[in-house]
Amino acid sequence: MAAVGRLGSAAIRSFLWRRTALLSSVRCLSKDEMPGPYPRTPEEWAAAAKKYGMRVEDYQPYPDDGTGYGDYPMLPEEGAESQDPWVDWDDNWHRRNYGDVPHVHSDAYTRQRVNPSQKYVVPWKKMIAALVGFLGFNGIMLYFGEMYKHMVPVAPKQYPFNNLYLEKGGDPDKAPEEEIKNYEFPKS
Amino acid sequence: MGALISHNYKAYFGEVDYTPDPESMPSFDPNYGFQEPREERVMVATQKEMADARVPMQLRDYCAHKYMAWMMCRRDHMPNLWACKHERHEWDQCEYDDWVHRMKEWERERRLLKRKQLKKSLEGEEE
Amino acid sequence: MLELWGVLSLTSLGVMVIFLFSKIKSSFAESVKYAGYMNAVLLSILLMSDESEMLFLKWEWVKLGGYSLMISFRFDLYTCCFFVVGLYVTWNILMFSFYYMSTDPRIDLFCKYLGLFLIAMLLLVSAESLFQLLIGWEGVGIMSYLLISWWYARSDANTAALQAIFYNRVGDIGLLIMLMWSLVTLGDWSFTGLYALDFVNTFFLLGVVLAAAGKSAQLGLHPWLPAAMEGPTPVSSLLHSSTMVVAGVFLLIRFSPIILNHKEIQLMVFFLGTMTTLFSAICALAQNDMKKVVAFSTASQLGLMVTVVAGAGAPQLAFLHICMHAFFKAMLFMCSGGFIHGLQNEQDVRKMGGLHSAAPITSVCFFIGSAALMGVPFLAGFFSKDPIIEIININNLNSWAVGLVLIATSFTAAYSVRLLYFSVGGVSRMLVLQPMNEEYGNLIGPLQRLAYSSVIAGVVFIYFLSPNQISCLSLPLSLKLAAVFVTLVGGLIAWDVVNLLHREESVTNIPELAFEAQVGFYPLIMHKLIPKVWLNMGEMYQMQVMDRGWTELALPQGLGGNYKIMADNVVNAQTSLIKMYIAVMVMMGGLILGIMICL
User: Fold this and answer.
1) CA–CA–CA angle C526, C531, C536 (5° rounding)
2) Domain ranges of chain B
3) What share of chain A is helix, strand, coil (3-state, %, to 5)?
4) Which pairs from C560-563 meet CB under 8 Å and 24+ separation?
5) Using an 8 Å Cβ cutoff, are B31 and B37 in contact?
6) 3-state class of A70 per DSSP?
7) Partners of C55 in the beta sheet?
8) C47 — contact with chain B (CB < 8 Å)?
9) What are φ and ψ of residue A91, in 5° steps?
10) C133 touches C172 (CB < 8 A)
11) One Pfam family name from the record (chain B) (predicted)?
12) Which one of B1, B9, B10 would you mutate to disrupt binding with C, by most C Cβ within 10 Å of its Cβ?
């Protein structure tokens, strides 16, 4: 799928507008506000970093596999919910300052929506380990339990009429192979 | 519960060799080891009777006639079900005997398997 | 004669429906009560007769080719018992909601919602065809949604309601699978037809299992049940303990003859039930929210019912447990509702304690309900739970599953004792000057009625139900006492642990408790992992590749650009020079000529 995306992206770049895939949702933006093409040379890299107000060491665009966002920087996924509420933000509701580069999905990471950087009491990996461990342990033990069944020291229940051959939906025209007979124990 | 746990232990660790398999239970000839042939278990109710009385499938066993008697008594004395405690007891006793019969079958199978085991080991020693 | 009684029963229900539209809310409660009495009479008439089931109405609604959709009501033992239990419990809960919701401005609407739910539930249990079952099923689902989000201004309640309806939709897929498969393959939706055909189909049965798991909150689809506790307490009491959540088990009971013919599905349902009963019991152990403990114990008991339907193959016992469970669990919820209301909406058990002096009658009812839930001998729960444990013990079943059921049973006692210790017993830890008062007729009355029924219902039902399977008559004493024994052990352990953990000098925060307190991390992980996976896939393939890739290139967004390029070329060619046109003409003619020669 990435290959298809890359093909489409390359096609767009080569013979359409020479722009990256970031098109439709920002159609209203002017050309200067659009992210530029993926930076190839170190100079372009530095220029892109400067454009977004970042240091070159911090700047890292999305990989250019056809589904990237041009030179837009790949920022850490932080929801507004987990930002410090006591900081004097320029925008207190969205908890961001003027000139901050927003995450490319920042519309999904507002305070009413999802928070990808949620802090849990128990670490995430530990939680998964606990749940998978619980279910997996029980699953394995149920498998072994199926091998070693709970054994009650009685014979299977005996039923008359060939073990209820007809009642259990047997074919009346075709008699069962051998007739099952049950015997009493002698009275002592 | 303790009895069952110890039995389970025996079935899988202590006496693995001669614990019967409930899936293929009567593996010996029914008359093997008896002085005279055993009598066949008597089924009193017929298939048609049971079908007419709509006896549940699990209860169409050798006590079905007593179950049917109980149910008929219930129907006749419906609001006063204490009137049927005699029939209820009869059926319960029959089911109890059936359970004991199942236990006996199990024990017979177990002892025969043990005996077979013993015989085999004796033959091995003679050789 | 029998038909007459059936018609009377349906008429009483019809009158109940009419009273649903009355302006006076208590008259609806009265009508529910009298409908309950009428149906109790019907039940005894049915038991007296020789019939095991009756079909009413038999009205042909739609006729499509060879298929005809019949509307009829199936009145068998299960339906009649459930009618009586459901109407009795609903009547009490309606009276209780007059107390609990008395300050709510829309209490009339609330009672109408409860009534609509009741009608949907009765449709569900008396359904004769899968289609009617679907109507009742979706009816209870939507009423559950509306009632959980009753306090719609609270975002928690909204979230819980959405969770409930989403998880229920997953289960409904199973029901739709059943409907479609049976219509396409068998051309019949009626239960009579499905029973008579005696088919065994994995696809259909997986639908049954999925539907039951969704509605009855089995492991995997369970998080909505504890979340649904955000709704008002009468809702939790009616929908999420006694009636709606058992609809899944009821479906399994209806289809148990088919399930028991399929070994793999039977095993699957058995494992699902045992794992649910253990998981929910573990989660209930460390909850501090009073209603959540009761909710998890409900889920645990539902797991026990599912276990016994499939594992031991005794659907009648499961049904008995449904009836018993309805009485005492509805009462437990009402008691906790009374406590919560008296303590000004305080649900945290750590802030309760010593309520036996503040609210003695509620406390006694709470104790009776917990004892019945634990299976203390000769209360209602004992008569269903003890045979369940016994029948699981005397069958050659999966040994680990048997152990899990026993552990879960002991946990039942553990969390019940813990809850009792925290709320009713001990020293009072509530805020001072709480106007704790239980002198309301609409609180005490329903509680007492349900308490009496929790005591005697077991005897009555055992007395009237004719057994469908062999009762265990010759157990060794130790095995006979197994259920009581594990209950006792669980209770003692709970007592010990509570004393250990909640003294002043003790360590109260044990990290190992996080698994129990955070309900096994299941909702946290699943509610994050699955949406995240789908979100990433959506971003990758739908947004970047399709919307911003190929749509830009060739599809609507790209068409404009492509046409613009072509149009630009055409415009560029329009130079008004005759030589240019002639050149183009010659070129085209040469091309056509060349093609013709080549061909």
Assistant:
1) 135
2) 43-126
3) 30, 5, 65
4) C561/A16, C561/A17
5) yes
6) coil
7) C74
8) yes
9) -115, 100
10) no
11) NDUF_B7
12) B1
- For the record, the structure tokens of A5 come out as 């995306």
Using a CB-CB distance cutoff of 8 angstroms, which residues of chain A are in contact with residue B102?
154-158
Q: Are C299 and C240 in contact (CB under 8 A)?
A: no
Instruction: pLDDT tens for chain C, 599 residues: list them.
Output: 667 777 777 888 888 888 888 888 788 888 888 888 877 777 767 666 655 677 777 788 888 777 788 888 888 888 888 988 999 999 999 999 999 998 889 888 998 899 899 999 999 999 988 999 999 999 999 999 999 999 999 888 999 999 999 999 999 999 999 999 998 888 888 888 888 887 888 999 999 999 999 999 999 899 999 999 989 999 999 999 989 999 999 999 999 988 988 889 999 999 999 999 999 999 998 888 999 999 999 999 999 999 999 888 888 899 999 999 999 999 999 999 999 988 888 888 888 888 888 889 999 999 999 999 998 888 999 999 988 988 888 888 888 999 999 999 999 999 999 999 889 888 888 887 777 888 888 999 999 999 999 999 988 888 777 777 777 677 777 777 878 888 888 888 888 877 776 666 666 666 677 888 888 889 989 988 888 899 888 888 888 788 777 777 777 777 877 888 888 888 887 888 888 889 889 999 999 999 999 88
**What are residue C398's DSSP bridge partners?**
A149
Minimal Cα distance from A157: which residue of B? B102
Kindly determine whether residue C514 and residue A114, on different chains, have CB atoms separated by under 8 Å: no
Q: What count of CB pairs under 8 Å joins A to B?
A: 84
C474 — contact with chain B (CB < 8 Å)?
yes
Other beta carbons within 10 angstroms of residue A173's beta carbon come to 5
Cβ separation B22–A185 shorter than 8 A: no
Domain map (residue ranges) of chain C = 2-517, 545-598
Distance separating alpha carbons of residues C98 and C550, to the nearest angstrom: 60
Distance CA C92, CA C246 (A): 18
Cα C136 from Cα C120, distance rounded (Å) = 5
Both tokens of C49, joined, read 């007769």
Mutate to test the interface with C, among A74, A131, A152 (most CBs of C within 10 A): A131
CA distance C62 to C72: 13
The first and second tokens of residue B10, run together, are: 């025996």
How far apart are alpha carbons C592 and C247 in whole angstroms? 75
Give dist(CA B18, CA B111) in Å, integer. 8
Name the residue facing A148 among B12, B30, B34 (closest C-beta). B12
Q: Which of C376, C396, C395, C394 is nearest to C386 (CA)?
A: C376
Distances (CA, A) of C578 to C277, C570, C582: 90, 15, 6
Q: Answer for the pair A181, B26: CB distance below 8 angstroms, yes or no.
A: no
With contact defined as beta carbons under 8 Å apart, do B19 and C396 qualify?
Answer: no
> C468 and B58: CB-CB below 8 Å?
yes
The DSSP call for residue C467 is P
Could you tell me which residues come within 8 angstroms of residue C139 by beta carbon, excluding any fewer than 6 positions away?
A: C116, C117, C119, C120, C121, C123, C124
Q: Which helix H or strand E contains C63, and what residues bound it?
A: strand C53-64
**With contact defined as beta carbons under 8 Å apart, do C147 and C232 qualify?**
yes
Q: How far apart are the C-alpha atoms of A111 and C466, rounded to whole Å?
A: 59
Q: What angle (nearest 5°) sits at the alpha carbon of residue A165, between those of residues A162 and A170?
A: 150
